Amino acid sequence: MIATGDAPDHALPVRAIVERFDALFPDRAELSDRTGWELPVIGTIDVYRNSPATYSFAPVAAVIEEAAMYFGDISITSTGPYGLAERCPLLVLRSPRP
User: Contact 41/51 with Cβ under 8 angstroms?
Assistant: First the structure.
């Protein structure tokens, strides 16, 4: 998610995701025509519309800083070669601090 929440928790209400999507793509039929995606597939974004959930998209540096208070060995690794994998790194925590 390129649009993230602000510090300190970098939280983003998921309803904001669909609001942004609607602003970017007001004509779903046109989006379907241009991308080849079927309208029901595009419509799956609507599950977020009235959601009370909030997602956190903290920058890697912030996650590492927080984890360093509790773990002595921290690394970030790729989750695979798929598209956008760089947006979903795996946090590896070893050597818990006493």
Answer: no
Spatial contact of 65 and 76, defined as CB atoms under 8 Å apart: no
Alpha carbon 63 to its chain centroid, in Å, reads: 14
The token duo for 21 is: 């999507």
Of 27, 43, 58, which residue sits at a domain end?
58
Q: How far is 71 from 57, CA to CA, in rounded Å?
A: 21
Cα gap 62→80, rounded to integer Å? 22
Q: What is the pLDDT of residues 32-81, one digit of tens each?
A: 999 999 999 999 999 999 999 998 888 888 889 999 999 999 999 999 99
| Same-domain check for residues 85 and 53 | no
> Which residue reads 């241009």 in tokens?
34
Inter-CA distances, 69 with 15, 58, 93, Å = 32, 16, 11
